[in-house]
Design brief:
This protein has helices at residues 11-38, 43-64, 76-102, 105-112, 115-127, 133-137, 139-151, 158-181, 191-213, 217-227, 230-255, 258-280, 286-313, 322-352, 372-383, 392-408, 410-418, 428-458, 473-484, 493-519, 528-558, 566-577, 586-615. The chain is mainly α and 617 residues long. The protein starts with 10 loop residues before the first helix and ends with a helix. The model is unreliable at 1-6, 311-318 and 356-363 (pLDDT under 50).
Length: 617
């Protein structure tokens, strides 16, 4: 396999994607800082600043810099339609900014993620647009997640919540209204030209609203600026950033596709939440995080279900939808987890076992666990047979999220890397890169479940009178949040991302490659025997490549206080236990991953057929 040519890497596209992420998250966080932390409590005036900047910079970009061709208006009717859209747009932005005065960014994004729900409802009510039942079913976790997050939000404020819901509904209303008003080909405008005409109308609407509802705001702003000149720079930068959001939105779509932007948008909210918690340090509850996570998963499922329904309508569908793939892989991963978790428990105990230095005849310092079967027997004898299934609950939590996302996102991410118009066999390097990406993204979401699973598995038999650290999975989540903070749930995230990205790439790429090779051999068909050998190959390559980072991950999560960082854990393990320590538990690890991959891929292939049969009806 040859290294990828640096000149073939789409650096401009990567740059625009990074700029899109930075501007979207940046303007959101700066709005929150100004309206809540800084004390600038004038959301309508702030929106007026945004629209003024958009008016000026849109003209500069289109008329002078020729970023996009100028599209002229055809009639007064078209102008009136755009004016109507502008009013709704203004209202949604103002409500969103008002909500940021009262709600943390994390909860604001959770509520904002329900836009697909309002869009689907309004589209049905206004234009009688019906979706497939699979699409409507994906809205259940979207709404359920917000309900859960609302009940568990420590900083819940009713007025802010109402404003946030109103802003979300208004955005959805604007989207549906745009489909109605600008439906003909002659009236359609690209996003840059639409902003060029909408922004000045928004300024005209916002100016009297600012004068009437935020009296003397200009003089108040000038007085605040005399005390702190940085306020002017904050407003100028924030307003320019608001325009840059729209510019990068247009350019990312131009250089990739609307589908790519949709995939990126699904992850943007989660990234914004993590960054905002790190910056503003707002309190977060377990129920709040669970609710938001459920909403994000629902939004991803919804967008993929919508894409699949379009593909069916255009007779372009070649496989099952993302929702079908997600459900198939999540179910298969959970089934494999139940079957193989005793081997995983043995692997964790062996990896966490430190090397003992004993005097002659000192049996106490000899290793407690020896070999896979010996470890299984020791745990069962000392702690009971049920101890081998310690961590099964968070293990199933993990597989529902990680198992579903890493395979479900694989095709969209691969399409992002090769382009929508790519024809032919996808290069192996792009497949590996896509698998690395999905593995990293999936485990970033699922890391808290992995942490709890390892801690429950690592807890051995305790002396009489010593209470257990955690009574169960849910108690572990809440205890870690309460005692160690929300950041503790992402303990070991570095080695965990490295381990799961590498193993995911090894599993998916090797499974495809082994399966493809076997099918070329006379006598082999696409059946259970081929899937069996391909699954074993995937497990073997995954263990060979991922075992060192797996050992570091287990040690970091099992006893994070003993190590300062991932590098420190690596160095101490190498120094104290030698290089072979990185392959400690290799046999149980392969026994576990090999059997896990066989069971998972066998089940997955059958589950896919079942899902495809349902979707084809």
């Amino acid at each position: 396999m040859t290294a990828a040519d640096p000149s073939s890497i789409p650096w401009p596209t990567i740059g625009w994607v990074a700029s899109w992420y930075g501007s979207n998250i940046g303007v959101l966080l700066l709005n929150k800082y100004l309206l809540s932390n800084y004390g600038f409590k004038y959301p309508i005036f702030l929106t007026l600043c945004h629209m003024t900047a958009c008016s000026v910079l849109s003209y500069v970009a289109i008329a002078l810099m020729k970023v996009a061709p100028l599209q002229t208006l055809k009639s007064k009717v078209q102008l009136a339609k755009i004016a109507g859209l502008s009013v709704v747009f203004c209202f949604s932005v103002v409500c969103g900014n008002v909500s940021l005065r009262y709600l943390p960014v994390s909860f604001n994004q959770a509520v904002g993620a329900t836009t697909p729900f309002f869009t689907a409802v309004l589209a049905f009510l206004m234009i009688k647009k019906r979706e497939e039942w699979v699409t409507y079913s994906t809205l259940i976790p979207v709404v359920a997640g917000v309900i859960i997050a609302s009940g568990g939000e420590p900083s819940f404020q009713l007025f802010g919540f109402i404003m946030c819901v109103t802003a979300t509904a208004a955005r959805a209303f604007k989207s549906v209204l745009q489909q109605i008003l600008l439906s003909s080909d002659g009236e359609k405008l690209n996003s840059m030209n639409l902003l060029l005409y909408m922004a000045p109308i928004a300024v005209i609407c916002l100016l009297p609203a600012t004068i009437l509802m935020e009296k003397n705001v200009v003089w108040i702003t000038l007085e605040l600026a005399r005390k702190d000149i940085k306020l002017i720079w904050y407003l100028l930068f924030n307003s320019s950033l608001a325009y840059f959001v729209n510019l990068t939105n247009f350019l990312v779509t131009k250089h990739t596709s609307a589908l790519t932007l949709q995939v990126l948008g699904n992850a943007k909210g989660a990234v914004a939440v993590v960054v905002s918690i790190m910056i503003f340090k707002n309190p977060v509850s377990f129920m709040g995080m669970l609710g938001y996570g459920l909403t994000v998963v629902g939004v991803i499922l919804y967008s993929e279900a919508k894409k699949s329904s379009v593909m069916v309508a255009d007779n372009k569908k070649s496989d099952i939808s993302f929702a079908g793939t997600f459900a198939s892989s999540a179910f298969s991963a959970c089934f494999a987890e139940i079957c193989t978790i005793p081997l995983d428990t043995a692997k964790v105990r062996l990896q966490l076992q430190k090397k003992g230095v004993a005097a002659a005849g000192d049996a106490a310092a000899l290793p407690k666990y020896r070999g896979m079967l010996g470890t299984v027997a020791t745990v069962a004898r000392e702690e009971g047979l049920s101890a081998l299934w310690k961590g099964i609950v968070p293990g199933l939590h993990r597989q529902c999220l990680y198992g579903g996302l890493r395979i479900g996102l694989y095709e969209p991410i691969k399409t992002l890397y090769v382009g929508d118009d790519f024809v032919g066999d996808v290069p192996l390097t792009k497949k590996i890169l896509a698998a690395l990406t999905t593995g990293a993204l999936a485990i970033t979401v699922a890391n808290p479940t992995d942490l709890v699973k390892v801690r429950l598995q690592a807890e051995g038999r305790l002396p009489p009178g010593v209470p257990k650290r955690y009574s169960g999975a849910l108690n572990a989540y809440s205890t870690i949040l309460r005692q160690e903070g929300v950041g503790a749930l992402w303990t070991g995230i570095g080695p965990n991302i490295a381990r799961n990205a590498i193993i995911n790439a090894a599993e998916l790429a090797s499974y495809d490659q082994v399966k493809q090779t076997l099918l070329k051999i006379p006598g082999f068909k696409d059946n259970i025997v081929t899937h069996l050998f391909a699954g074993l190959g995937a497990g073997f390559f995954a263990v060979c490549i991922g075992s060192p980072v797996d050992v570091v991950k287990s040690r970091m999560m099992g006893d994070s206080s003993a190590y300062k960082s991932t590098i420190d854990c690596f160095v101490k393990t190498l120094k104290n236990d030698g290089p072979l320590a990185f392959y400690k538990g290799f046999i149980p690890n392969f026994g576990r991953l090999g059997s896990w991959n066989v069971i998972m891929f066998l089940t997955f292939e059958q589950a896919k057929k079942f899902a495809k049969s349902i979707e084809s009806k």
